[in-house]
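Our platform keeps sequence and structure together, in a single record for each protein. Such a record has a labelled line for the sequence and another for the backbone structure tokens. Nothing more is needed to write down the fold, since each code stands for a local backbone conformation. For reference, a complete record is included directly beneath this paragraph:
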Amino acid sequence: MKISVIASTKPQYIANKDEFENLSGHCAGVCYMQDNFDKILDEEASKTARRIKQTKMSGHHSVYDHPTVSLYLEDIPKALAIVLNNEKQYTTSEKSARYTKMILKDDEQKLYDKWLDIFKKLIKEDYQQKYPSYFTDLKVEKLAQENARYLISIFTPTSMVYSTTYRQLNNIFHMMQNEINKEEEKQNEFYKLLKPAMQDFCEAILKTTPYIDENINSNSKSKKLSLIKNDKIFSYFGDVYSINYNSSFAYFAQAQRHRTINYNFNLLDKPQFYVPPILKNHNDLVEEWERDCQKQVKEFPQGMLISINEMGVFDDFILKMMERKCSFAQLEINQQTNQILKEYVEGLEKINHPRADEMKKYQKGARCTFENFKCTAPCGFIEGINETRQI
């Protein structure tokens, strides 16, 4: 076997459109290649240009997935980041509200600061005193941030590096344009709220990149943004699975990063909110939390519950458990993963599926209890290992 590098990312370099198209045109020639790739690279430019035109017109756009671009997006609403992160293929690195403090409006900042102090106090009382070496002041701070951010708007600006392909960037651009141009009565409520941000995104892409091409377009296959699905989707468990449940926006943003699993959501008819488990032994705090969430309802707080459908295959759900059944994982996604696991096992047992016993093995505790997992950073936190933690 011989391996050659025919393209690579060069930091701080902006490829022009011709470079993207020539790479795609050369790759398209591989399908009918009589000799080797070097011969394609040496062919006359007119031959490559004809192939580029032919692939665009015929809808054979997969060759335009070979070139990739990395974008740094500043002040993008978290909600629009969720839209982008639901479209495959991509890689993203995003400023985290779990680990950093976001720029908030004055009223929102006051609520956030109030609950940040409350969570720090509760975590210190319930966990730091018992596990001082594990629950350092820094860890307490980060866990308090993780919980306080449930109050901040899903439209809070964030920053991210977003890498995708030449073709996918065009698909996203055109799908957003289609959503923007929909008749008012046909627009989904969530997308309607995002319409100004979608317009800003499309205008910025046109202004700062040379890569948008009307002929590389998802319209020919009637492809739409995948985040919102209005169709009724049923639950099913077998070699493939589908499950419906309610969780928060914050959960969804974490879960959709499992790119082999498909996610979509719809808004609930009546606003409901995630209540961090550490509050549940304090009725007065639960009531106060729900009042403060209601104050934020028009801002769509990240703790607002949504109706989620998750759809994937058996082995990819196991990979999800490898990531999320851990004391370092966000508590909500850890607990929701366990609930899905419970329902998955029950569903497999109902149909006498031969892999039911295999799935049951993952119910013993966190991933460090799995036979096929070796933890490289043991936490020593027993409530995290047996999955009874409240933080």
Strands lie at 68-77, 91-94, 157-165, 236-237, 240-248, 262-267, 305-313. The longest helix spans residues 106-128. The chain is about 45% helix and 15% strand.
